Amino acid sequence: MPDIKAIQAELKESKIDGWLFYDHHHRDPIAAHILGLDGNGMATRRWFYFIPSRGEPWKLVHKIEQGVLDSLPGRTQAYAGWEELRKQLQKLLTGAKKVAMQYSPENNIPYIGLVDAGTVELVRKLKKTVVTSADLVQKFEATWTAEQLKSHLEAGEIVDRVRQVAFERAAAMVREGAPVTEYELQQWMLRQFRVNGLTTAEPPIAAVQPNNGNPHYEPHAQGSRPIRAGDLLLLDIWAKCDRPGSVYYDMTWMGYLGARVPDAYAKIFCIVREARDRAISLVRERVASGKALHGWEVDRAARDVIRKAGYEKNFLHRTGHSIGQEVHGNGANMDSLETRDDRKIVPRTCFSIEPGIYMPEFGVRSEVNVYVGEREARVTGAIQEEILPLLS
Length: 392
Prior knowledge:
The protein is α+β, with helices and mostly antiparallel strands. Helix content is 34%, strand content 20%.
């Protein structure tokens, strides 16, 4: 059940008259998470749930699905026809002028832009100003409890161990003359997740050149490359504890199947490492000082390093993403490229910092997770300082 008083306090602080939740056919998972709905019930008709900044919440449901919001507090109105829906919605919003919805101006933050344009138009037609709920969502959906932080650290210890053994396994198979493929190594990691109580919605990435030049390369059973001596191996691994409410841990490390890392690989890794560390330093400094920090600023700090090194066109994605119960969460992203994420980074949230340089011949990425507390920020796992020589 949502904390109505906390939401109302935040609405008052933000000078917003209310938060209007809307869903149809489970199109808004954010609403389900924040309102504590299981997301499995029937939702073939539109429903609205309005939390005003003052007073009791209101529910607007269809007459043949009147129980869809029974778990939530507040008064209920029911409709059948579309004209009745509009009249009831107008009544629901009486006294409100500025209303937050899962809407993002110009779809700048696609994770938030879940309400369709027509519904936004309908609310505006009722002479309401619709504003984005992005900061509210971050406050009530992206922040972690102490138990969630504990689950993240627990998953991180296991993932880091799986990563280390995966590198060792790839090297051992090369020594034996029976190299494992990218796909086989991926599947081995998935088995380790299951044995150690972890789960993931999508499998990890094992990629050698040139496949690691594709940031979202996915190894498959057919066409996967064998991992051989002289290969640069990228492991991007994310998982969470297999229990309700757990949050993800997500990391990327690089290893080289040889005794000495070639200068071409080491040079690019040094640039990526500097970009990563510059972004981490900015976060730590701002959080310690209590000064506001926006997601786009963190991206800019890392991107400037890569731009000055001459590889701006080879850094194809944002510097980092929010992390939560989904590996790509609903908090601020470290992004000034794909979007200009101007959300403030708030306490008790976590995000990745993962700059990369991707070329036709090979790609390099280094990824850590950063958790922000009240006055400190910390990297929650091991930090890679150089590409690992795996056959030394």
